[in-house]
Amino acid sequence: MAVVLTVLVLFLAGFLASFILLVIGAINFDFSNSEIPPGVTQPAKLRIIHIILICTAVVGKILENFGICTQVSFVRYVQGRKTLGADPKLFIKDLWFEKVPVRIYQPKAPSASQRRGVMFFHGGGWVFGSLETHEELCRFIARESESVVVSVGYRLAPEHKYPAAYEDCLNASQHFLQHLQHYGVDPARVTVCGDSAGGNLAAAVSQTLAGRSDLPRLRAQILIYPGLQALDFNLPSYQQNRGVPLLFRERAAFYMLQYLNGNATKLEEVLEGSHIPPDIKLKYQKWVSPDNIPEEFKVRGYKPRVLLDCTTEVYETVKRFCEPTLCPLLAEDTIIQQLPESFILTCEYDVLRDDGLLYKKRLEDNGVRVTWYHLEDGFHGIINFFDYCGLSFPSGKRGLDRVVEFIKGL
Fold this sequence. Notes:
Blueprint lengths: L1 H32 L9 H23 L5 H9 L10 E8 L2 E8 L7 E7 L13 H11 L2 E5 L11 H15 L6 E11 L1 H14 L9 E5 L11 H5 L8 H13 L5 H6 L5 H7 L27 H7 L14 H4 L4 E9 L3 H13 L4 E10 L14 H15 L2
Parallel strand pairs: 3-4, 3-5, 5-6, 6-7, 7-8
Antiparallel strand pairs: 1-2, 2-4
Helix pairs in contact: 1-2, 2-3, 5-6
Keywords: Hydrolase
InterPro entries: AB_hydrolase_3, AB_hydrolase_fold, Arylacetamide_deacetylase, GDXG_lipolytic_enzyme, Lipase_GDXG_HIS_AS
GO molecular function: carboxylic ester hydrolase activity
């Protein structure tokens, strides 16, 4: 018995020592590879949130090394632990739309007319995020805009590769549009909305539904710091904000590859820009180019990159990056022209800022009305921290208020 206890104590001591060393190493690595620009308000809060996320990932890695669970599943578990009680102003119900789990938020107060409808697709790099992680956000939108909100629990990568997430969001949206009367929703006032990867999915779904005559036409699309292309990870915002939490440049490309292939084996080629042949890049340069970014967004430093060659082997693994359902910025003008009124939110200290700016230009060039709101002191993911315990950011609340204001104006 004494021997067993000794072995157990030694095992726990080794586990604890490994954990401490890994956490210290991860935090030190983060400090040396990250940068919080002076323009970010309350930088200490952002640093704390980032450290919490790093520690969660480290614990997940340790558990994975011991064969207990995967790092991804642990992080998902931790993220989904926050549970909220009943909401006095909302009916909340979990349902299935075409085999896709959804959560519906309906205001309890009686309405003299049919309500607006919002299809919401959560962010999380197609790898993380769930109905739970965006519960508070969806409740806020439903309450404050007095709309019926449908949050979609689409399948996640790397277990479910592209186009699984897109197909789930599209199928759920089609189901909702076909059954609006069951939820008291006005067919003329349905919007798709999403943040980050969810913004990508909202844009893709909006494009697909634009040409459908058998369904009610979408009233609007709301894209909150969306990721919309994977041809160029060296745009000004990717260079300027490459180490700004909560989304590093490298992680943005990593998540896109996880969604596409279920792995990130061509990460270095994607980051340096040698994953797409020059002739194809030139074809899309009219839409994906630093030349289309206003000059005021380049003042923090930007170095133009030369076009690099690409091997056939590399391109074969990522050629679907040219599909608009994965990278909506690459859709043809004939599709863009059919899109509904749009709201785009961007953050100055976000690698995805320029994706939003480029899409804004494309929409405006094709006659689509765009409401653009830019958070000068914002960073990627800030909307989720509009009311986050003691770590909330006024800018996040300000951005979310503008989203609600836009919805109420529809």
